[in-house]
Amino acid sequence: MIFETHAHYDDEKFDEDRVELLSHLLRENNIGNIVNVGASFRGCKDSLELAETYDNVYAAIGIHPEEMDDLTSENLDWIKANASHPKVVAIGEIGLDYYWIKDEEGRAKQREWFKKQLELAKEVDLPVIIHSRDAAEDTLNTIVDYNKQSERKGIIHCYSYSKEIALEYTKMGWFIGVGGVVTFKNSKKLVETVQAIPIESIVLETDCPYMAPVPHRGQRNSSIFLSYVAEKIAELKGMDVSEVERITYENALRIYSKAKRN
Predict the structure, then answer these.
(1) What is the pLDDT of residues 10-21, one digit of tens each?
(2) CB–CB of 192/245 below 8 Å?
(3) Which of 35, 46, 177, 230 has the fewest CB atoms within 10 Å, measured from its CB?
(4) CA separation for the pair 60, 68 (Å, rounded)
(5) Whole-number Å distance between alpha carbons of 260 and 258
(6) Dist. CA 19–CA 21, nearest whole Å
(7) Comparing C-alpha atoms, which of 203, 111, 125 is closest to residue 158?
């Protein structure tokens, strides 16, 4: 079975077939556990509702850096209160995204809330899911500091930086999330990263409904397409696909320690 470590089945693109996918289609296509990840505050609530509805679905709750309006003390209090829920396995996705934010004031605000959510994760003793775009140095520096304070690790989701930075994360015991981008022709950096880091540091993810792998690039993504990601990693690592699926499943259970084997 494949462990889907990062999905967004609360997205409206799944409104027509969400029930079919989560109730039986994913399982019939070799997908075991699924972590539905909050981005907005509404997404956090929806993720928890999905986790309560389906046995094999778990929730991560946190506020994405692009959802700045949702970053309030009241919302963080809700996240803290629900972190002890048996189906909540992580705080995320949280982090830094400088793609649209060019001014230092806006970036500083992101860093402030990122650190507050990391502090919350440490307080509730949960791993974190990190979103980072165009913010390699600030993200790494923040995680290095956080890693000194907390024994809990996390996943660098949708990894897009160099293999050298990835190795810094894996040396600290963190995991690298690999999805459909690894199958793209222009994915040189991610290909090099997968080749450089140990398989024991890789988890499979889709970020669905986004970033479907080749040969479905441009379509709505779903966890069913994770087989293509596993096949590409197996090719790059010189491994059997079954071993990639088995090891990455065990990796996911290690980081999401509240999840049960499925």
Answers:
(1) 999 999 999 999
(2) no
(3) 46
(4) 18
(5) 7
(6) 5
(7) 203
Site of tokens 């690039």: 217
The whole-number pLDDT of residue 44 equals 98
SS (H, E, C) 82-129: HCCCCCEEEEEEEEEECCCCCCHHHHHHHHHHHHHHHHHHHHHCCCEE
Antiparallel, parallel or unpaired: β 154-156 and 128-133: parallel
Which helix (H) or strand (E) covers residue 231, if one does? helix 226-237
Name which of 26, 34, 4 is nearest 178 in CA terms. Answer: 4
Residues 6+ apart with CB under 8 A from 186: none
Q: Classify burial at 172, counting beta carbons within 10 Å of its beta carbon; exposed 0-12, middle 13-18, buried 19 or more.
A: middle
Contacts of 48 (CB under 8 A, 6+ apart): 38, 59, 61, 82, 85, 87, 88
pLDDT at residue 13, as a whole number: 98
pLDDT tens track for 85-98: 999 999 999 999 99
pLDDT in tens, 26-40: 999 999 999 999 999
Residues forming beta bridges with residue 36, ordered by sequence position: 7, 59
At residue 232, the 3 state secondary structure works out as helix
